[in-house]
Design a protein that fits this description.
single chain; 765 residues; alpha+beta; four-stranded mixed β-sheet; 32 helices; 20 strands; 11% strand
């Protein structure tokens, strides 16, 4: 097919580009090289076309109608044909719009005397008539004789030989319209699926298309609108500052559907993927992608993909959130994700062997319970995690450490030195953060930090000589010394330097101390960034309520005790009022220790017995009588105020049986339990929790324990004792308290004027 014929068919809507083809991605130099090859008659490859009455989805606004008959589909060669269409016609082909062309080649010029191609340069071309735009020659807006006349008008003498050369070259350029493209055709009877398979096979062995682009072409066979759907989402994300690519989304889909980063052929088959890919994309589009970008903005302080060294680190995060069906993560999960993300950037996790590394990482996401802990271990296997000052030496702002420093500064609420505006703000499509030399290069250059000394030049451009601004500071860098500049910043915004880890020792701001300044800032940055990374995962785990079933299954502990009943003796099969002492002993022990939970209606081995038998020991056999009895028991054994403030009583259902749950808070004073000995006499006992049991302490042990656990109580016990003795309301308790007084302060009897009176009263009692 002649090149001119191909262009005419595009204009006449007879030759189309299918939607499964990638966009125009050629660089300007590729278009120039292609035209150069055509002019010189070099081989330029073939076209692959398919004539069909049942075309796939087409690029551009044209909608195929069956009345149109057979149309020709361009399967291979669209980059070449699009480039030459723009150079010859001077316009965008109808299947694209201006915004689809990232690198426009239409300002390509040719020197018709030397047959040299170059993109327009005003200095080089404006005064030389031999330089003409290629499009003007193809459109015959400029002929060889026009060039010759212009040369002569400028006073140049044009020889016959020079005239012929210009004429021959101009005709050689125009003649490429007659170039015959070798054309291969797909059989008319081929289906869309077969055409895409042929397209894939033609491109699979070359380097013109990426694996992701070929996979996207295959997906287009069973989802014609996939490119439109992906591009719509990309535009939305771009508005949030996240500029991603079709390749990226294809690998995201592969990761979500197959936990793979390399085997893109898994996306090819319609039978297995058609329904699944729509479901996966719906969740990604409506929830997951936006949620992940929100996490990065709110927790990682990433406002734009310009700050990210490798966006492919987002794929494990996206897949993890996708596996959770789009549900929101808890704080610990988010912090672990952010921590790993930071290390993936500064340790260049995806700088090489991307598919293989994604394969490994996505398997971990799928199989590990704590995937981002394990993913961090993988990075640690290859690279040191800790940042050291030497890593900053000679590093430019393109280094990931500079990006980490930006995130850290934003996390601290750092501000711009010139405006005082916080670095943290919505970027949108236009990324406005800039960086500024702290020590101006124009001044450092005079000190020997120039191109002539590679090592010193690297130090001048080191990232530690940069501050982050929201816009370029209004200062003439060559005229203002760093000391004057930083002094003014310090005066205007006192915390600004510290928030960007800039040493505040004025001696380091002197130009002769530049390398000392770098050393100090490297140390500050390495220490602060390491602390920043360490602190990310040092969080208080979220409070997740433990169910009673889980508590019981875990068994008794220093904070949990089981009692089968309050009154019903399962061994004797009758009421046993002495069982109450086991309950009261546990409550006293929890009160004297750190508090705890007592469950009544649960056997020692965790069997749920319920309270039905206990209820049956009361007239009416109901919970109200049981609760009233328990409340009276607690009030009589401990003071009412303590019971009201420190003991919570509830009746939850476990395994369809009602039990009693007592939540005991620790007491601020010792709780003694009055019991009866074998002779029926009352006695005071002191219990504390030890492991999963309640232990009684002897008086001397109790005294030592109370001295540490309730230090203020012993100061008050003296007054309490006198009141008890005077009232004679509880002689046994009075005797116990007085015994504690004697243990705590042996000299008390000689110092206190009422001692003899108390002692006599006790003897009478």
């Amino acid at each position: 097919m002649k090149l001119s014929t191909a262009l005419d068919k595009i204009d006449e809507q007879q030759l189309f580009v299918p939607s499964f083809q990638r966009e125009y991605v050629w660089k300007r130099e590729a278009a120039k090289s292609f035209l150069d090859s055509l002019i010189k008659g070099y081989p330029v490859g073939t076209m692959l076309t398919w004539e069909t009455n049942d075309p796939p989805e087409l690029k551009g606004p044209h909608q195929y109608h069956e009345k149109q008959g057979a149309v020709r589909i361009l399967l291979d060669g669209q980059q070449r044909l699009t480039a030459i269409y723009m150079l010859i016609r001077g316009s965008i082909p109808p299947y694209y719009t201006e915004k689809d062309i990232k690198e426009d080649p239409r300002n390509l010029c040719v020197n018709v005397e030397k047959l040299e191609l170059a993109f327009y340069s005003k200095i080089k071309m404006q005064n030389d008539p031999c330089w003409q735009r290629v499009t003007k020659i193809f459109n015959k807006d400029v002929r060889s004789k026009d060039v010759v006349r212009e040369l002569e008008n400028r006073g140049e003498e044009v020889s016959r030989e020079r005239d012929d050369k210009i004429d021959d070259n101009t005709h050689a350029i125009a003649k490429i319209l007659d170039w015959n493209f070798p054309e291969q055709t797909v059989p008319v009877h081929a289906t869309v699926r077969e055409a895409i398979d042929i397209f894939y096979k033609v491109n699979a062995s070359g380097v013109s298309l990426t694996d992701a682009e070929l996979a996207l072409a295959q997906i287009s066979g069973y989802w014609p609108k996939v490119r439109d759907a992906f591009k719509c989402k990309l535009k939305e994300l771009q508005g949030q500052g996240f500029e991603l690519s079709l390749d990226f989304l294809v690998r995201v889909i592969l990761g979500c559907m197959y936990h793979s980063g390399s085997d893109l052929k898994k996306l090819h088959g319609k039978e297995k993927n058609n329904e699944t890919i729509h479901t996966a994309w719906k969740l990604l589009d409506e929830q997951v992608l936006n949620y992940v970008t929100s996490i990065l903005k709110s927790h990682a302080f990433v406002d734009h993909t310009n700050e990210i060294s490798s966006v492919y680190a987002l794929i494990p995060i996206i897949v993890y959130c996708y596996d959770k069906n789009g549900q929101h993560l808890n704080e610990v999960e988010i912090r672990k994700i952010v921590n790993w993300f930071y290390y993936s950037q500064i340790r260049n996790r995806y700088s090489g062997q991307l598919p293989q590394k994604l394969d490994r990482d996505l398997r971990i996401v799928k199989d590990d319970k704590n995937p981002f802990d394990q993913l961090l271990s993988v990075i640690k296997e290859e690279r040191r995690l800790k940042i050291i000052p030497a890593e900053f030496e000679g590093r430019k702002i393109s280094h990931p450490l500079f990006k980490l420093a930006c995130w850290y500064f934003k996390s601290r609420g750092a501000i711009c030195f010139s405006t005082g505006v916080k670095l943290r703000h919505s970027m949108g499509e236009k990324y406005t953060l800039e960086n500024d030399h702290i020590f101006p290069y124009s001044r450092l250059k005079t000190l020997g930090y120039s191109w002539g000394n590679r090592i010193k030049y690297a130090l001048a451009q080191e990232l530690t000589n940069r501050a982050i601004l929201t816009k370029t500071a209004n200062r003439t860098k060559g005229a203002v010394t760093p000391k004057d500049y930083l002094t003014k910043v310090k005066e205007k915004f006192p915390n600004a330097l510290a928030l960007q880890c800039i040493p505040e020792d004025p001696a380091l701001w002197e130009e002769e101390n530049y390398e000392r300044f770098l050393q100090a800032r490297r140390k500050m940055l390495s220490e602060d960034l390491n602390q920043f990374l360490n602190d990310i995962t040092e969080t208080t785990p979220p409070v997740i309520p433990t169910t009673l079933e889980e508590m019981i299954e875990a068994g008794e502990s220093d904070l949990l005790e089981f009692k089968a009943s309050l009154r019903w003796d399962y061994r004797l099969a009758r009421v046993n009022n002495d069982l109450k002492y086991a309950v009261l002993k546990t409550i006293a022990a929890f009160s004297n220790a750190d508090g705890g939970t007592l469950l009544i209606g649960v056997a020692d081995d965790g069997e749920i017995l319920g309270l039905e038998d206990d209820f049956g020991t009361f007239k009416g056999a109901n919970r109200d009588k049981f609760q009233l009895h328990l409340t009276n028991l607690l009030n009589n054994s401990f003071n009412i105020v303590y019971v009201m403030n420190n003991i919570g009583v509830s009746f939850p259902q476990v395994a369809e049986k009602e039990i009693c749950k007592l939540d005991i808070q620790p007491s601020t004073e010792p709780k003694f339990l009055t019991t009866k000995n074998k002779n029926g006499q009352q006695q005071q006992k002191f219990y504390v929790r030890s492991g999963n049991s309640s232990q009684e302490l002897r008086p001397e042990e109790a005294h030592n324990y109370c001295s540490e656990r309730f230090p203020r109580w012993l100061d008050l016990v003296f007054l309490a004792t006198s009141a008890i003795i005077e009232s004679c309301c509880c002689p046994v308790q009075a005797a116990s308290l007085l015994y504690f007084v004697m243990l705590s302060e042996p000299s008390f009897s000689t110092q206190h004027p009422s001692w003899n009176h108390w002692a006599m009263r006790l003897q009478m009692i």
